[in-house]
Automatic annotation (TrEMBL):
Xref: Pfam families: DUF1272
InterPro entries, per the entry: DUF1272
Protein name (record): Urease-associated protein
Recorded superkingdom: Bacteria
Species the sequence originates in: Sphingobium subterraneum
Length: 74
């Protein structure tokens, strides 16, 4: 199951699990749309392709909350 990281690893922008605009690689590195575009849709950590992260809403989000661990600046 996706951890649904709450922030962009590059700029720290908030990326709620129930909203679009997040991009992830196969290792779940997470970036906002602006940073993904600036990175030419390539993860700077692994070189993998950055793709739209699916959203998690309603009961699915309530039963499986997103991570609260922030990754910006780590």
């Amino acid at each position: 199951m996706l951890a649904m990281h709450p922030d962009c690893e590059r700029c720290g922008a908030d990326l709620p699990a129930d909203a679009g605009g997040a991009f992830i690689c196969s290792f779940e590195c997470t970036f906002c749309a602006a940073c993904a575009e600036a990175l030419d849709d390539r993860c700077p950590n692994c070189g993998g392709e950055l793709l739209d992260r699916p959203t998690r809403t309603g009961k699915a989000l309530a039963d499986n909350p997103a991570s609260t661990v922030r990754h910006f600046g780590v």
